[in-house]
Each structure stands twice: as structure tokens, then as C-alpha cells.
């Protein structure tokens, strides 16, 4: 069984880098919607916002001493430029200089398709199969008066790209571009929050559709298929799902153990989708039939753990303090200490946006201070090896007044879905 992280990576690729380039995210109206879709009123990120992001990146590059930045296809490229592309052994990349216009480097035969996906900019440098794409990057920098200095690489740039750039740009020092990319992407704009709210709305509505269809004898594959179909029918893209039953629910990211729904058994689901490249991530724990007292107790404790995390997420507080508060609460209730089982064996939450998992996290030692526009999952699960696990996960975003829910957690096992924030 694939892990949740593998599912998230696959979903992100499907959502952002299709086999055929998707509609460019211009000022045009959103794509056509199917009957039953919840995408009415959804607006893609505007070109003006992407241009402002590039300007902010250039200002940050000036502050941290980066002369240019290279982005490969994926979330960062889409975030700054609107270009939806895929990765292969043939390099396509975006170069953002500290001053001047962005440029795209791509294989010659891909240029028409790349231009279809571009939302702004005109400088496209092509290379033939026998030529070096890294020489084209060097030409971009030279034409912008950058003959030496510091070249920033976003976190997901592959080794062969870094190695090729190092050989072609002997006068440059390669450094991490995280201070720039994180400095831009960590804080979401109102337009980004609106897309994340819509993705969460779709996933929550899909849970309501699937919960009613659970039956004894169903396998994880059966339930996953129902959830994929539900999210897709509602307009979700890059859909991913994970279903775990009984003892399997004590494995936070899955198990290969054979599983079927039985009376009185835990059903743990962890699912999400994307809308215009922005992700949802919601976990729900049900009991098929009548729950035991122990199941009810652990479920309610996890639900209270979410409240503890939410209340600890104060503006200006270090992100790690949220995790600390939850672990202290669980310890008082006999779980832990620390990551010890039975208890909470993973961080309390992760950053989320265009990627299902992105910096920063609700994890011990994280000193980044919480600020308006940051988004996180809130998922303080409890796992009892050999018995079952409970995880409730709803995402939150920081406002000028403190945290707010994308989706409100459920109140009880009797009404386990929750509602929109």
C-alpha cells in the first residue's frame, strides 16, 4: 500500500503537471464545470498576483544576496509563473533574476506547448537534443548582466540539474532559495485562501457522500474508489484517498494487512484534492455500527486534542509550541510521553498550500512564529498498536485575530463529519 506522502506527491503531480498542459491561469473565466460540481464562482490566481509574487521574490533575493533563482516544474514554478509542466530528463526551468524579466529554458520541440501554458513573459530560450540546457541558463544570466554571484535553487531541484548548473556557471555559488520561496509561499493571499476553502469544501462534501455508503465486507480499495469518485464528481482535481480499518488504523500512513469493514470496527480515512493547484487534507474516523466505550473515549480525546492545538496557535507563538501543548495534554491523559506509543507518534500538523505538506510544521523545536496567512493541518492522532487508531484532521489558517478553521471538526462519533468553517 502506498504511503500518504506517496499519495500526496502523486496527486500533486496529477494536479499541476498533466500530460498535456492545462489552461493557463490568466484573467479568463474558470474552466467549464460538470453538473454537480462545487466549482461555481471559483477564480484562478490572476496574472497580476503572479507578477506581484515575482516582484516580492526579487525583493527578497536582494535582501538575502541571491542574484538569480532557478525553478523546476512543480509547485514553485506554478506559484510564480502559472506554468503547468512536468519533469523529465529534458530540462525545462524558469529563471528569475534579481532584476529584470523572467525567462524560460525548454527543449526546442516543447516551446509551442510551453508558451501555451505561460501567463506572462516573452523570453523563451530553447535547446536541441545535442545541446546543453545549462548553457541557455547561462545566456539568460549574461543578458541580464549577471556574470557571477549567487544562484538560488528551490528545494526540489534535482541533482543532475544542480550539477549541470555548477559546471556551466563556474563563477556562481549555488545556494538554497528557501529563504525566497518560503518567504513568498508560506503566507497565503485572500485568493489562495479562497481556493483552499473550496478544496476543503469538496473533500468534506465527499465524506458526507461516502460515509452513507460504507458496508460490511468493503475493502480499503472499495472505499478509496468511492472517495475518488465523489471528490472528482464535485470538481476536485489531483484527488488522493487512504482508508484504514480496525488494527490497520493504528498505522498512520497505511499497511499491507488485508482489511475489511466489520461491525464495531474503526474506519479511518485521510483524503484530499486540489482546486487550481491548492490542496485540502481532511481525516475522519468513523465506527461502523456501535462504538465501544474505549473507541468513544479515544475519539473524544483526539477531538479535544484538536481544540488544544487550535487554542495554542496564537499569533506570534512559535509553531513548535502547538505541538508541545498537545503532547502535554495527552501526557496528562496517560499517553506518551513524547512520541511513545500508545499516543501521538507524529507531529501535530504540517504546513499546507499548493503542496499537501510544506513548511512550516506544528512540530517540536520549530521556532517560526505564527503570522496571518499561514496554513496548517491540525491532526493530533492517538494510535494503539494492535487495536486501532483515531485521527481527526482539519486545516486552519491564521488571521489577524488568530486561527480560523477551513472545516470545523465534528462534535461526536454520532455525528462524525463536521462542517464548513
UniProtKB/TrEMBL annotation:
Domain Creatinase N-terminal per the UniProt entry, residue ranges: 53-187
Taxonomically, the superkingdom here is Bacteria
Annotated ranges, domain Peptidase M24: 195-400
Tagged with keyword Chloroplast: no
Q: Which of UniProt's keywords are assigned here?
A: Aminopeptidase, Hydrolase, Protease, Signal
* Name under which the protein is recorded: Aminopeptidase P family protein
Record carries keyword NAD? no
Name any one Pfam family assigned in the record: Creatinase_N
Q: Which GO terms describe its molecular function?
A: aminopeptidase activity
Question: Which stretch is the leader sequence?
Answer: 1-24
Amino acid at each position: 500500500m502506498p504511503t500518504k506522502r506517496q499519495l500526496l506527491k502523486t496527486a500533486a503531480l496529477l494536479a499541476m503537471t498533466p500530460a498535456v498542459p492545462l489552461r493557463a491561469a490568466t484573467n479568463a473565466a474558470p474552466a467549464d464545470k460538470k453538473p454537480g460540481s462545487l466549482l461555481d464562482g471559483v477564480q484562478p490566481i490572476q496574472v497580476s498576483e503572479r507578477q506581484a509574487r515575482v516582484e516580492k521574490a526579487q525583493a527578497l533575493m536582494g535582501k538575502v544576496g541571491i542574484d538569480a533563482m532557478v525553478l523546476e516544474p512543480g509547485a514553485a514554478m506554478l506559484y510564480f509563473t502559472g506554468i503547468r509542466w512536468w519533469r523529465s530528463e529534458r530540462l525545462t526551468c524558469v529563471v528569475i533574476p534579481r532584476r529584470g524579466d523572467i525567462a524560460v529554458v525548454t527543449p526546442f520541440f516543447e516551446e509551442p506547448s510551453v508558451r501555451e501554458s505561460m501567463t506572462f513573459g516573452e523570453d523563451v530560450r530553447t535547446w536541441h537534443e545535442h545541446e546543453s540546457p545549462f548553457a541557455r541558463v547561462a545566456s539568460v544570466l549574461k543578458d541580464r548582466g549577471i556574470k557571477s554571484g549567487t544562484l538560488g535553487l528551490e528545494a526540489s531541484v534535482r541533482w543532475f540539474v544542480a550539477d549541470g548548473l555548477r559546471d556551466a556557471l563556474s563563477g556562481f555559488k549555488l545556494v538554497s532559495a528557501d529563504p525566497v520561496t518560503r518567504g513568498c509561499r508560506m503566507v497565503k493571499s485572500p485568493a489562495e485562501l479562497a481556493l483552499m476553502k473550496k478544496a476543503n469544501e469538496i473533500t468534506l462534501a465527499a465524506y458526507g457522500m461516502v460515509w452513507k455508503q460504507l458496508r460490511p465486507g468493503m475493502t480499503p480499495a472499495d472505499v478509496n474508489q468511492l472517495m475518488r469518485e465523489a471528490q472528482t464528481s464535485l470538481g476536485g482535481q489531483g484527488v488522493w484517498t487512504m482508508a484504514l480499518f480496525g488494527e490497520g488504523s493504528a498505522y498512520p500512513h497505511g499497511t499491507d494487512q488485508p482489511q475489511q469493514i466489520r461491525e464495531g470496527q474503526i474506519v479511518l480515512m485521510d483524503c484530499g484534492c486540489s482546486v487550481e493547484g491548492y490542496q485540502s487534507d481532511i481525516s475522519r474516523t468513523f465506527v461502523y455500527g456501535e462504538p465501544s466505550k474505549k473507541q468513544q473515549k479515544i475519539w473524544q480525546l483526539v477531538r479535544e486534542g484538536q481544540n488544544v492545538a487550535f487554542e495554542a496557535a496564537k499569533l506570534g507563538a512559535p509553531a513548535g509550541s502547538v505541538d508541545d501543548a498537545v503532547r502535554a495534554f495527552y501526557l496528562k491523559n496517560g499517553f506518551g510521553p513524547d512520541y511513545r506509543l500508545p499516543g501521538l507518534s507524529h507531529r501535530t500538523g504540517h504546513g499546507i498550500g499548493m503542496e499537501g505538506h510544506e513548511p512550516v510544521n506544528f512540530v517540536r523545536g520549530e521556532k517560526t512564529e505564527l503570522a496571518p496567512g499561514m496554513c496548517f493541518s491540525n491532526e493530533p492522532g492517538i494510535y494503539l498498536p494492535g487495536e486501532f487508531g483515531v485521527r481527526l484532521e482539519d486545516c486552519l489558517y491564521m488571521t489577524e485575530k488568530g486561527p480560523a478553521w477551513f472545516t470545523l471538526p465534528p462534535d461526536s462519533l454520532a455525528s462524525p463529519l463536521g462542517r464548513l468553517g
